[in-house]
Amino acid sequence: MSVDAEVIELQPGEELPPQLRAPEPGAKVALYLHGGAFLFDEAPDLYGDRIAAALERPVVLPHFRIGPENPFPAASDDTIAAYRQLLDAGWAPENVVVYGHSAGATMALTVITRAAEHGLPMPSGVVALSGFLDFTLTQRSLADNDGLDRITPGQAHQIGPMYLGAANPEDPAVSPALAPPSTWTDAPPLFLFCGGHEILRDDTLAVAHAAARAGCEVELRVVAGQQHGSAQRAHPLTDLLLIEIAAFVRRCDDPMPGEQKWTGGSLEDQLPG
């Protein structure tokens, strides 16, 4: 069954709707994991619609469990369950891209860090924008960018323990930035983005460096002067970012030999003055 480039919402425990079952051979889909500080849900028209249009494929938006009453691993379990549902419905893993923003970027990367635990194959690629990726809260940008970002270190110190619950912040299943090299050796290509003024900037840099050192294909975009949430706001950056992400996803759809792989130029170089 062919599916339009639209956002299809999914509640925890809900079955996939008919249009997502028995996909046509080669059909592509994106699993979009929303932001909201692990506290808030997200409507499809905030960002999901733009992703579907840019990637030209259906976008599944699972409304994973949120709030302090649902600490780890609740949201991550719901993410893994949604990914498994797609696979069980006949979507080939090489035709599924996982895409997350903010809290959703944390979820997106835990698909990689928890895949072995759940016996799941890797998706074709992972897009992670401005994720909270180190719950030990020891990265330097937390202090260096204090006062430059729209979120504060104090807020991060509130959100982190709320999401963790009783979990160990050093567990790679919780903090992808602390995952061992073996996690990234077999990981799919990554597209990572953060703003230069984000207090969580170094979370993204830590994942990028660890994954690249392990041999994973990594595309990293750090845009000077940008705060947390800049990937979603109405700004030329957002349009350029979606163009680059769409190009990355197309390369994941049809991967080239390693020596031919191309990494695009910096978004910062393309922004109007």
Automatic annotation (TrEMBL):
Keywords: Hydrolase. The keyword rRNA processing does not apply. GO terms for molecular function: hydrolase activity. Gene3D superfamilies: alpha/beta hydrolase. Residues 31-230 form the Alpha/beta hydrolase fold-3 domain. It holds the Pfam family Abhydrolase_3. The keyword Hydrolase applies. This is Alpha/beta hydrolase fold domain-containing protein. It comes from Prauserella cavernicola. The lineage of its organism: Bacteria, Bacillati, Actinomycetota, Actinomycetes, Pseudonocardiales.
